[in-house]
Amino acid sequence: MNLISFLRNPVYFGRDNRPSQLLITVCWYFGCTVAVSLLFLGFGRVFPEGVPEVTRRYPDLPLWLVLLLPPLVEELAFRFPLRRSLATLGVGLFFLAFLLVSKGFGGEIYTAKLLPARIGIAFGLAGVVWLVARVRLLRMPFVRFFYLSALLFSSMHLFNYVPFSFPRTAVVVLYLTLYVLTKSLSASILGYARIKHGFGFVVLLHVLHNLPVIVLYKF
């Protein structure tokens, strides 16, 4: 199934890891990434006062861990559960809870600070949701489940901006709205890649997406 048909009506279908299909998905993902980057570059040139301050808190870890950990954790939270089962839902709920709890503890996700407490609270929250809502989540129409995951992913990335560091103006609201919409598109393409090519491939796409920014930041 091609990407456009899938996004119109997300459904489960068999994997296709032929090189030509992998290449098409890579082109879609990074083509959209470049287009979105140009969109926000233009927005910043036209409305410089409308771009909120970005947080850049990368953990003090070896480069390979900085490259791998955030994509792996985010993909476990948002894309791994798309192939729904009791196990994948449980894993996804734990990592989603871990991200939310870590944001609540000051936003330091990939550090040892209060790590046992964050893991314990996340495990408890995820366990409660899993026990109460697992049947509903398994039976939810896939199209709703798929786009709910994409929306959660994009909304989580609003934490990339320093809270309360920007004026509440129409331009800023427009910027943040565009940000959520474009992140949702990115999440949807990653979701398509998860269904079509498997979990390992979508982690690799995410790592390659983060690579330029992290390398520039580190060096």
Characterization of the model:
- By secondary structure, the protein is mostly helical.
- The protein is 72% helix and 0% strand.
- It contains 8 helices and no strands.
- The longest helix is centred in the N-terminal third of the chain and has 28 residues, at 19-46.
- It is globular.
DSSP strand tally: 0
**Helical run tally:** 8
What's the rounded overall pLDDT mean? 89
Tell me about the largest β-sheet.
Answer: none
- Beta content comes to under 5%
What value does the Rg take, in angstroms?
Answer: 18 Å
Structural class: mainly alpha
Quaternary status of these chains? Answer: single chain
Q: Distance between the terminal alpha carbons, to the nearest Å?
A: 41 Å
Categorize the overall geometry.
globular
Helix content: over 70%
Uncertain spans: none
Instruction: Report the order of strands and helices.
Output: HHHHHHHH
